[in-house]
Amino acid sequence: MAEMDKNLFEYMDYREFLRDLIDTMKKENPAYSMRAFAAKLACNPGQFNRILKGERNLLPAHIVEIGTIAKFSKKEKRFFELLVSYNHAKKQSEREYFYDQMQQFRKANVKQVSSEQYLLYSHWYYLVIREMLTIVQCGDDGDEQCRRLSKLLEPSVSISEMQDALETMMHIGVLERKDGRIAPAERFTASGGEVPQVIVNRFLLEFTDLARRALDVVPRNQRRFSTLTFSVSKTGYQKISERIDEFRREILGIIEEDLGELDRVYHLNFHLFPVSKSFLG
């Protein structure tokens, strides 16, 4: 079979892999088709098409047969099983479990796969430290400096966690050494669309936990919490979502134009979610 453009360990969606696999087989044999692939799986073509669209899930028997068709190694077979389980998982905890298992295979294939872009969102304090270093100076990642920085975090982290954070962010280019100190390489960082949703979700949940903590430990005059419960149509929901995006961009503009003396790092959460089922069915 012709070689695929992407390595199996680069995929986060098994359906994308299957589409690429079929396309690769078509390049080798123009007469090959999705129907032919489905036939090898002993799967109805219509059913297989719905699997590729995400409307149905692969069956265990299909997973085994795909391994045979793609000529997977033992390691690739196990990774594909985890990839399918990851895509089928409904709960965040399950997706995190399978994602972490997949990462073990990725680490063993570091030459083929780079997951460095995900590391910045692996812990809540990475981005906080990055922003903090726009305010305070850090000469190195020694114990004394890391202890000082850790005490500035709310809540604090261990010296080893601080050192790992600095080392990781310097390695992926988020931080750099400037004039004898460690500082951010760029002013802002956005997650974009390349970071897996399971990592983004984990990141959001960590900050949600920090928000709960802030209600107890941060004085009221140093925090702002508000809530609003309302009924709205789908059109209204879309308008509110767009307004939140506009407001977020407006805040970034305020930050960019802020000429005052920076004195603290803040985090802002936006939460908009349903608390009832649809009444229209």
Describe the secondary-structure layout.
Blueprint (H helix, E strand, L loop, with lengths): L13 H15 L5 H7 L4 H8 L7 H10 L4 H15 L3 H17 L7 H4 L4 H9 L10 H10 L6 H13 L3 E4 L2 E4 L12 H21 L16 H24 L24
Antiparallel strand pairs: 1-2
Secondary structural class: mainly alpha
Strand content: under 5%
Envelope shape: globular
Helical fraction: 40-55%
Poorly predicted runs of 5 or more residues: 110-114
Task: Please report the first level of CATH classification, the CATH class of the domain at 8-113.
Answer: Mainly Alpha
Q: Main sheet, how many strands, which sense, barrel?
A: 2 strands, antiparallel
Q: Give the oligomeric state.
A: single chain
Instruction: Give the end-to-end Cα distance, rounded to a whole number of Å.
Output: 48 Å
DSSP E strands, number:
2
* Discrete helix count: 12
What is the rounded Rg? 24 Å
Query: If you average the pLDDT, what whole number results?
Result: 87
Order of secondary-structure elements: HHHHHHHHHHEEHH
Q: Please name the CATH architecture of the domain at 8-113.
A: Orthogonal Bundle
CATH T-level fold name of the domain at 8-113: 434 Repressor (Amino-terminal Domain)
Spatially, the strands of the biggest sheet line up as: 1-2
Task: Kindly summarize this structure in a few lines.
This protein has helices spanning 14-28, 34-40, 45-52, 60-69, 74-88, 92-108, 116-119, 124-132, 143-152, 159-171, 197-217, 234-257, and strands at residues 175-178, 181-184. By secondary structure, it is mainly α.
